[in-house]
Amino acid sequence: MITAMAGFSNKFRITGQTYSRKVDVDVLSVLGSLGASIHKICTDIRLLANQKELEEPFEVDQIGSSAMPYKRNPMRSERCCSIARHVMVLVADAQQTAAVQWLERSLDDSANRRISIAEAFLAADTILNTLQNICEGLVVYPKVIEKHVTQELPFLASENIIMSMVKLGANRQECHEQMRVLSMEAGAQVKTFGLENDLVDRIKASEYFLPIREKLDELLNPVTFVGRATPQVEGFLEKEVYPAIESYKLDLDASAQLTL
Q1: Residue 3, phi-psi category: left (phi > 0), alpha (psi -120 to 50), beta (remainder)
Q2: Rounded CA gap, 137 and 133, in Å?
């Protein structure tokens, strides 16, 4: 009756003076899971920024590093990772509180909850706002990505080259050994001498791989290595993401404003 008068449509069926502290565990677990996801996203951004494949938005007068003027450190992602870890460990506060309730309850719960629950929501809001700002201004460098793919593509294509040879009648083990030797030689050029990956040139110069020499460009087409990535992403967006954000579409035009 009291909850109905207060306007609540649902209520806890079994409770005393307080609701079960397991509710706090459920709530903070969701926020902790969010923190883990954001940490993962921002860690990937930091790794790709190190490879110069992308960059966070960078202010005109922003200082990337106090020691090295040329650097453009991904400070937003670093901040997200740092705060996300705090959100993740706050879940343990709720778990500990729920675990040590004596019989119906223990009076040592309230002080902890006032800190952990509030901080979890405030920190989650902070990293969400920061991640939105990152995504809105993310800069991708396709030419750098193309360079990295080109450098590694001959190694990635080795299995396709072997299979193409086998289809023409070659012995797989023998073909594998030929490819292994050439790959080790090309790898030594890259790692020992700092030279470009010349595996393709070595394959073209090998009499053994003569039967597929004319097909090398086709076998080295990067598009053939993406697998089902495109339909998987499109399907995920169509079936999962778009329905989830439909009820919030009126708010999606708002941008995240940060004061750095």
Answers
A1: alpha
A2: 6
